[in-house]
Design brief:
alpha/beta; Dihydrodipicolinate Reductase, domain 2; 2 domains; 14 strands; Rossmann fold; about 35% helix; 6-stranded parallel beta sheet
Length: about 350
């Protein structure tokens, strides 16, 4: 099979890794990297024996697919130009800066019958894949995504920056229409929302509580899923997954409180037997495979085989829709009793229009 001719547009903090990984695929020809910064572009191009171009227009008619990692506000224009020409696109999350632009990209991909994949890389985290394969239909989900301030993605707030990952994960797991989305949030550093707490309620009764904070001293990416099968804890950073489920001794035997009330009951032994005998503990082995490599490998494979990506435009649009509802709820919440919505505890008021943008 001939090599797939691919370009990377935007080789900043994340895009340079796209270029590195794609350049390492035997079935990919990294035709060029495009970046408005000559310093960034030339450095990445030299590392991977390709060429730097300032404008992607130079190669737009000479490639088979493109990976786009430009700032979010440029997604609609840049991804749109490639989709209009029928060129398969992988664009970093979120799909676009607002719901309207996201819908236009999905519509454009459909009209041109062109592949559109969105970089919700957490779906390719081996911890996610192992956990999702084991957990039952969820009844309650609690997720937190905390990060020190990175001084990038400053054109979007924490909902589109961080929480969008967990929104996508929840939607992929619950598989039920959303009934309500409520949010409470505020700005710390003064422009976009930096901290948001959201509650999603689904028509099947599942509830998901999500926390996102990008001005946090330490990083954390974790999720807990309660289902009829038990409870599963997922640490996306350490790739540690542990599940707790009732054993046959618990499900079909005497209830533990009844056992404890029996004359001569050995309470200390019951405590030792709680996890293991009555509650089974399972810690699956997790692959050390790189999630971004898996995402890009999947993109290339889908382009070559004409298959639908794991996270296509419709999935990303659904996450954007939920994010939009959360942002509207955040903007509606009155911190100070005046119109304008959320007020940061340290910084100035954040207006409704800014949060809902």
């Amino acid at each position: 099979m001939s090599q797939l001719r691919v370009a990377v547009v935007g080789v900043g903090a994340l895009g340079r890794h796209h270029a590195r990984i794609l350049a390492g695929f035997d079935d990919v020809d990294l035709v060029a990297v495009a970046d408005t910064s000559a310093e960034n572009g030339q450095k990445v191009a030299e590392l991977h024996e390709t060429r730097w171009i300032e404008s992607y227009a130079e190669v737009i008619d000479h490639i088979d697919a493109v990976s786009i990692a430009v700032p979010t506000f440029l997604h609609r224009r840049v991804a749109g130009e490639f989709l209009e020409r029928g060129i398969p696109v992988l664009v970093e999350k979120p799909l676009a800066g607002n719901l309207g632009d996201a819908q236009e990209l999905v519509d454009l991909a459909a009209a041109q019958q062109t592949l559109l994949q969105v970089g919700h890389v957490e779906r390719f985290n081996p911890a996610t894949q192992a956990a999702w394969a084991e957990c039952g239909a969820p009844k309650y989900i609690r997720g937190e995504r905390l990060s020190p301030y990175a001084f990038r993605s400053m054109d979007i707030g924490v909902v589109h920056d961080l929480m969008i990952h967990d929104i996508d994960l929840v939607l992929s797991l619950v598989k039920s229409p959303l009934k309500h989305a409520n949010g409470l949030g505020f700005s710390i550093l003064g422009e976009q929302e930096d901290v948001v707490q959201a509650r999603l309620t689904f028509e099947n009764g599942c509830v998901a509580d999500l926390t996102a904070n990008r001005v946090n001293p330490t990083a954390s990416r974790a999720m807990q899923v309660w289902s009829t099968a038990g409870c599963m804890n997922v640490d996306f950073n350490s790739r540690h997954v542990v599940s707790y489920s009732p054993s046959n001794a618990l499900r079909f035997g005497k209830p533990l409180p009844e056992r404890a009330r029996q004359p001569g009951a050995d309470i200390d032994q019951l405590k030792r037997d709680l996890f293991g005998t009555f509650i089974e503990v399972n810690e699956p082995t997790i692959s050390d495979a790189d999630a971004l490599t898996g995402e890009l490998r999947s993109f290339v494979d889908c382009v070559q085989a004409g298959e639908t990506p794991l996270v296509d435009g419709h999935a990303a649009l659904a996450a954007m829709d939920v994010a939009d509802q959360i942002l509207n709820s955040v903007a509606d919440h009155q911190w100070d009793g005046h119109a304008g919505g959320a007020v940061g505890p340290f910084g100035p008021s954040t207006g409704v229009d800014e949060l809902a943008a």
